[in-house]
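Summarise this fold before class:
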Amino acid sequence: MTVLTCGKEQPGITTEKDRAHARSHIEVWHPMQVDLAALPTGSKYVVAESAGHYIHHDQPQLVVDALLDMVRRVRT
């Protein structure tokens, strides 16, 4: 398994209340993603540092690389 997770807040958050909510969500979400990646042996956890929620839009090559890496790992 490969877990990709966002590394920055979603663009378009305009109020401080919404930013605070997003930060608290990330504080809970990221540790859960690390725990998820730790479940099966050989899993990887990748933070898309320049991406918000839509990693495939913000960093499509990272997604492609993760998929190709997973195929390579499964074949070996």
Residues 16-38 form the longest helix (23 residues). The chain has a mean pLDDT of 85. The two ends are 15 Å apart (CA to CA).
